[in-house]
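User: Hey, my collaborator sent me this sequence without any context and asked if I could get a structure. I don't really work with proteins. Can you help?
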Amino acid sequence: MPYFIYRRFLLVIKLIHYNRAEKPGTSGFSEAVRAMYPETRVQLCIVYMVRNSTKVVSYKDLRKLCADLKAVYSAASEQAAPDALDEFGRIWDSKYPIIHKSWVEHWKDLSEFFKYPPEIRRAIYTTNAVELLNYQLRKVTKNRSSFPTEDAILKVTVSGDSQRFPEMDDADKKLARDLS
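Assistant: No problem. I've predicted the 3D structure and written it out in structure-token form, which is a compact way to encode the shape of the chain:
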């Protein structure tokens, strides 16, 4: 990737930091990214959304509720998914109204992956690939006490020097495997 893209990415990260939204799903993440890149499509992690939804659910309802949520995010099409979400709300709003409300509020950023074929949906419905890359970046940079400039950290992480940092090469291979 060209160098200027990484510079722009650093600006987005700074904007997110200034908005006090350090994690995806927290207030301001989508807005911060879209402020820098107005045409950006944001996909929130479905796995995190399901986990957050089940925090308030009693154990006896957990399996049934998760099955009903799965019908929402595994719907065959973008048109069928809102119907499944409405059906979920009809069934569960009496016991857990906050779950349906949360999914409706975040629907714009949860439903983005329906615009892609099922093969690609599998790779983007969760942030596991991104988390793997972040883990590998931390692994490469953790033993260094400081970086004198932003360019220094870019040189270490983006250089593609697989002899010095074989774990970055491994991360690239794992990411490619997850996307295939």
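In plain terms: The longest helix spans residues 3-18. You can pass these tokens on to your collaborator as they are.
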